[in-house]
Amino acid sequence: MDIGAPGPRGKGSIIPERAGGDIRGAFAAGKAKFETMNNDQLAQALANPVNTPLFVAAHMALDLHTLNRHKNEVHVTAEALGYFYNADRVYARSDTKHEHLLTKEEAKSKNIPSNPAWPTEYVLQHSEHAGNIRKWLEKVH
Length: 141
Description:
Number of helices: 7
Number of strands: 5
Distance between the termini: 10 Å
Strand content: 5-15%
Low-confidence stretches: 4-21
Order of helices and strands: EEHHHHEEHEHH
Shape: globular
C-alpha cells in the first residue's frame, strides 16, 4: 500500500472515517489544545494514557511529512512509515557513505554515535522491525 499521496477519506484511505466524523478534525482540535499548554501541563498530558492516540498520530504525521519530503531517497509505504516510527537500523555518524548498517544495540554497545537509517529498500530488507511490520500487514490484508 503506497501512502505517499493523500486520498479521499473512507475506504482505501489512510485517513479513515470515524463514527460520523473525520479524524482530521479531531486531530486539529487536539493539536490546538496542546499548543496552548506550558511545559508542565504538556508533561502531564503526555503521562495521561487517554492522550496517547493523539500523540502517536502527531508522531506519525510528522514522520509521513518527513518521508514525503525525501521521496527521491525512499518509497513511502506503510512498511517504511512503520519502520521510520521506531527505526532499528542505524549508521555511525562517521559513516558518511552509509556503507556499514548497524543495529541500534550494536551501536549502543560499542558507544558509536549514530543516526537512524532511512527506510530504503536495502535497510527495510535488513530490518527486523520492518520484517515484523510486513508479517502483520500480510495478516490484516
